[in-house]
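task queued by scheduler; priority normal; single chain, no ligands, no partner chains; default sampling; output format set to structure tokens
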Amino acid sequence: MSISLHEITQKALFGMGGKIIRVLFNFATAVVLGRFYGAHFMGVYFLFISVVNILAVPVKLGMHNGILKSVSLIEMHKKQNQAGSFLRFAGSLSLLLWLLLTVLLIVFREPLTYGLFHLKISTGNWVAAVSTAVLVVVIFELLRGFFLALKKVREVVLAEFIIIPLTICLLFVLLSGFIETQIWMVPMVYIFASGLGLLYLFLKLKDILTGLWLPLPLDELKAFLKLSIPLFLTGIVYLIMHWTDSLFIGYFHSASEVGIYNAASRVAAFLPFMMVSFNLVLPTTIVRMYHAGQALEMFAMIRKITRWNLLFSLSAYSAFIIFHQDIVTIFGREFISAQVPLLLLGGAQIFHVATGPTASLLLMTGHERRVLKVSVVTGLSNIILDLMLIPKLGIIGAAAATGISLVLHKVLLLWLCRQHLENSPHAERPVELIVSFVGISLILVWGYGKIGSLTLLFSYIFCMALLIWAWLDKNDLIFFRQTLVNITKKGG
């Protein structure tokens, strides 16, 4: 287990560095949008991203995840010369589906532009922007799955976590005076930045794919599609849970409310950043270890990783509990109502982290259809809760609906892991961990306004460091020390 865990951790640490950079630039972008453009402008931007990501799902058809699993197995069995054929097949099929989607967008351009976005601009410009963005996102996702399957984590991190968010942030800062009067330019920023990330992957792809284009037998292509379709359907439900809250807020309320809600969700998305970093590496590792008969070793490793993820996520959530008002007003005073959604979404993310990578485990071990059934149930529950809560409670209702659906989703996936894999990836002693961090946070909340801000901040840092140190055992500390030594040697 040690060798695999060292390898995974070293790559995850690189991914974590990129993820932190991405979170910082995304946060900076949200602050720029909130302070210099306003909640309405910010809401239009996030609505655009929501629509693009939802429309990209039927075009990808789950093939980005199919590539991840299929190419991982090919690489495991030393058949790398067939890897490129999966990418070529997926790209060709996605291009055809994208053309069909573009036709539908042209037909329904007025409801899209005027009904959802409430914009008084040329429908042709908006449809062209949505269609182009969908194509860029789809190709990027296919390449992302391909690179991760070949364990090329560095390339994905640079493209997805650094190039794209950095470019978006810089463009919004540099073009602030111009874009304010030309709202149709909002999607252009997203398209240009995503295009740069895609160009970088294409340049790296040229080096990787030399000699990897041997044709695949028809039965392997059929097996690939058979694997991808359930993943596609699961992806639809995941997107429903992730993006429909913004769509319903925009429909029942306003783009300004969408902007305020997305400020909270963007900050809450910081909590699982360490988990996301490990998830760049875990799927391919799960495929290899499971098919090599190392299931017990794999679960022991994942539970340890989940505990690390939970420790760092809880330390960040403690800051939300103590400083939630200060955090949301960074975006501007009109974002003060994002406090409660931030705490609700953050709490759901903590549960998500504590239960571990349940979806990746099931998807990579042949249980795609079971994940699909669970996803359909929780996706429908999310829509029902959105319709019940958002009209009356607005962004608080949206946060509650998303949080309840996420918890239900994770509980059912955890049950599936225990039923069909006879094990669980949850963190060790999660309740004690959560109680200790939240308890200390509530004590510090009592001091908010009673002691100086700097004193409170240093108290928070000291308490979090002490708790993390207390919950890391001797083996963890030895492991981290050795991992850092290995990274330093490689860097040298």
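post-processing summary
- The mean pLDDT is 78.
- Residues 2-485 form one domain.
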